[in-house]
């Protein structure tokens, strides 16, 4: 009993080459076997469709929960002294709350970036395209405006 295909034709029969049967013409071998699949010209004419089989990455609950809790605590620490004016310590508590809120926002942005999300208007990570200067300057103006309003409000407490 033989374990695999071997060249056992010793009596002058058809000899196999080391690669397999020799082709005669048009993809048909001397044994009448045809190649499977489309020809080279059919391959170039067919449009390729790429389908992503992996699911889209999402932020998990264990990633979001500490960020949301810190943001809520920080915003409450920032809002209560500003709303109810708790005396001399209110400005310190408000600035600490603002700091905690900003830390939570930074952590949220880093987690979102790690998953692959980007800010609206900015190119995707690794795309090679540069961000539009108007979008970047718009984000900078919004950020600086929020910082100025927060500092101005805390400074008015004194």
**Which descriptor suits the 3D outline?**
elongated
Poorly predicted regions are none
| Number of helices, counting only DSSP H or I runs of 4 residues or more | 4
Which strand-content bin applies to the residues?
under 5%
Distance between the termini: 98 Å
Q: Residue-averaged pLDDT, rounded? A: 75
Instruction: Indicate the radius of gyration in whole angstroms.
Output: 34 Å
* Biggest sheet overview: 2 strands, antiparallel
Strand order, biggest sheet?
Answer: 1-2
Number of strands: 2
Structural class based on helices, strands and sheet pairing: mainly alpha
Give the ordered list of helices and strands: EEHHHH
Please give the share of residues in helix: 40-55%
Transmembrane segments: 64-84, 90-112, 133-155
Biased composition (Basic and acidic residues): 1-13
Keywords: Membrane, Transmembrane, Transmembrane helix
Protein name: Transmembrane protein
Give the key terms.
158 residues, mainly alpha, two-stranded antiparallel sheet, 4 helices, membrane
Describe the structure in your own words:
The chain is mainly α. It has a domain at about 60-120 and about 135-155. About 50% of the residues lie in helices and about 5% in strands. It contains 4 helices and 2 strands; from the N terminus they run E-E-H-H-H-H. The protein has a two-stranded antiparallel ribbon with strand order 1-2. It is elongated. The N and C termini lie far apart (about 100 Å). The model has no long low-confidence stretch (mean pLDDT about 75).
